[in-house]
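It would be a great kindness if you could assist me with a short task in structural biology. The matter concerns a single protein, recorded as an amino acid sequence and a row of backbone structure tokens. The record follows directly beneath this note:
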Amino acid sequence: MYKKITSAIAISSGVLAVILFILTDFDKLGPVLILFFLSLALAIRNVGSVKGFSFTVLIFAAVAASMFYPEFFSKVGDFDLKKLIVPLLMIIMFGMGTAMSLEDFKGVVKMPKGVLVGIICQFSIMPFVGYGLATVFGFPPEIAAGIILVGSSPSGLASNVMAYISGANLALSLTLTAVATLLAPLFTPLLMKALANQLVPIDFLGMLWSIVKIVIIPIIAGLVFNRFAHGRFKWLDKAMPVFSMAGIAIIITIITAAGRDSLLTLGLLLIVAVILHNIIGYFFGYWGSRVFGLDRKSARTVAFEVGMQNAGLASGIALEMGRVATMGLAPAVFGPMMNITGSSLATWWRGKPVEEEKNKILET
């Protein structure tokens, strides 16, 4: 009964939203569109094959709300909501640390070739593809710098989830995410200095410290917590994934509200550029790994690690640079888009399991 009600609301509100858009009645379109996304998210939570998309659809509801009513997501009284972004990211990174252990780093020794290939692909393909797309599309300097920033960021936990769903090499995925995250304070500012300094001034040391503060310190705190207090606070283990998802939704909503005017001008072009960036990352991540001799399961893992970036970190860096309303837009768009494409690719690959191959990544 619940499923039928939510589905009926989603269908009717979706049809009404299309009619209002055609009639350009944008005053009424806002609440109807938000209702559509909310009811659709609730409806698909009961459908196993697409259940994983419910969070992404909720993100769309939040984005719609911030686009139509940005004033509610900019300030509360005199408090600027952008000040929440970095603390939320630090808590999310702490949660990431609690989900990791030193075992994740032992994969460097066990799978040296896979880790080396993955890291090379991670910090070469996406930064240069981002630079190329930003140049081809001719975006304003700060918007273009945001696309390069996404490409220069490490992978995040979403890639691990997709590797698990697809049946790829999960151990390699966890190791690559851990190693790429630890290398980010060096490589992300270095790549931004090389590729984006002509667009916006890049303070190498300032960006390095921002990444250490936002990512490395909280993750180390999470690792220490995991090492000495694992299992003692079960409520925290259950709460952190939920809090992380809520935190990501809040961050995207705040950035969207801050950059609403730019999105109205460049929205469609930016979405196209971001989707191309994401898909090209999957393509070259997979085939680049195959060229280097990795087996297909490991190549699938590298595809996710390369194509799915830590958009939250990129948003935090943009905020630290005082450019969240411009540089922060590409990360805000990239996050929801990569979850849609990543979930789709993971589901497709899950239905096409690879035959057991000689594990080439164990070869040194």
